[in-house]
Amino acid sequence: MTTQTGDVSIDEMTAVIEVERLRKTYGNTIAVADVSFQVNEGEIFGLLGPNGAGKTTSVECLQGLRHPDSGNLRVLGLDPKAEATTLRRRIGSQLQESALPDRIRVWEALDLFSSIVPDSPDWQILMEQWGLTEKRKASFSSLSGGQRQRLFVALALVNNPEVVFLDEMTTGLDPAARRVAWDLIRSIRDRGATVVLVTHFMDEAEKLCDRLAIVDRGKIVAMDTPQGLITEYASDVRVIFTTSREDISWLDEISNVKKVIRSGPRVEVEGSGPVLALVAASLVEHGITPADLRLVQPTLEDVFLRLTGQDIGG
Amino acid sequence: MRTLIKLSWVELKLFVREPITVIFTLALPIIFLFVMGGVFGNEASTDDSGIIVFRGVGPLDYYIPAYFGLVMMAIGTVALPVHLAGYRERGVLRRLHASSISVWSVLGSQMVVSFVIAVLGSVLVFILGIIVYSPHIPQEIGLLVLAFLLGLVSFTALGFFLGAVLPSTRAAQGLGLILFFVMMILGGAGPPPEVLTGAMDIVGQITPLRHVIIILQDPWLGFGWNVQASLVVAGITVMAVLLSARFFRWE
After folding, report:
1. Residue A97's closest chain B neighbor by CA?
2. Shortest Cα distance from B49 to chain A (angstroms)?
3. Stated pTM of the model
4. Scanning every residue of chain A, which has its alpha carbon at the shortest distance from the alpha carbon of B15?
5. Between A and B, how many residue pairs show a Cβ–Cβ distance under 8 A?
6. Residue A256, domain extent
7. Beta strand pairing status for A219-224 and A237-242?
8. What's the structural domain count of chain A?
9. Contacts of residue A105, Cβ cutoff 8 Å, sequence gap at least 6
């Protein structure tokens, strides 16, 4: 797996998922307006967007669970609608809004789901990897939210899938469990599978995804590597410090500075390029040497805010 | 096939872990058996106005095969619809579907569980009935087994249909219990059908239970095979299967 940068053409890689002009409506509600993307073999591809953006509907169409109104879909070279059964045996999915029977035990679920595919790998290993061994005899209804999520991911992997769809898999996990889950997702990829990750967590998308698409109101508004998106849509950095000096109007004169925001003693300078060095030099020149001078890099959140005009609310 | 076997085994264990369903399908017919036995004894009789009741046989000779039908009916009107509608409502079916577990495995496993419960419930009714009331033993075992299978398939299909069209556990419980009690009382598992008159008898005639009871009782009592009732039951089965296939939804 080569890390893809903006200038590497997609054609040079093997696409395991191809989506062209996907559209899906429910009555008068347009869930997915027009979505096209490709996912390459061995990458973690993210679909990032607020609730109701159409992320889940898109991946459900890819798994053949819903049928699109129009558009061409291919997953592992198969048509998710016509070849759904064949496809589902080669993919794994962790769905939103699904459940197991209340009284089924953890080991029974793993044993049952592993019986679907012949020669499926040993589910005991998955149970161990996903930290479910001590809960093996617990019933589904007695599991915590995090334990349920881990069980669902383990079930998604039980057939040794080539493509894994994870829909909001870290929702309901505590921060420590999320870190563990991220490592496990990377290990799924490192084992050779392609991962499609639906999430509304910015940090998750930024840290985990090789490439990601930002989805808003049924459309993809941007698609690139996380760093590529940040460079393109939120290149400005912020220099932050505190000072008691009243007059700092000269900061505006520095080249590369775009905006100076002051609230009380706190000053925030927005700018691009070597703005930190320039601001620092200018401060020293004016006799100000703040001990808390720091640089804040833009994050995916800034990209998201800029592209969708809204906070993700999660 | 391996999935069907595994799923059936899991479903059987789930059934045993659900005390309310166990009581409803297995214990309730036994309670009714003892109530009816206590009220009527097992002497062939007429009612006060001289009508022959219980088809001219002892009340317990009547009720024991009838309660085989009652166990099946409890499965078809309550246990299966509540189970399937609950699975759909909570996303269990969605989960199974996404992992390419076929509709045949899902319904096949329910069929296996229904069969096991019906046999178990009927054997309990039979053994306790024989021990306590020493009624007639079945006359034509082969035909009785055939009638048992036909009745069971019919009520299982009805359960699939109700489970397919009812949107939630709550709806399935509500409608299922109404169907259960109406069918029990008017379908021949409550008061003897001969005392039902007018509208009660008409409603009784259109309940599947009335006909299932007849096809079970006839070989038991040595009356042979009831063609008319078995055609009605077969017709209901075909209808229920077609409607289930038409309306089954994963979510």
Report:
1. B91
2. 53
3. 0.85
4. A103
5. 59
6. 236-297
7. unpaired
8. 2
9. A136, A137, A138, A139, A140
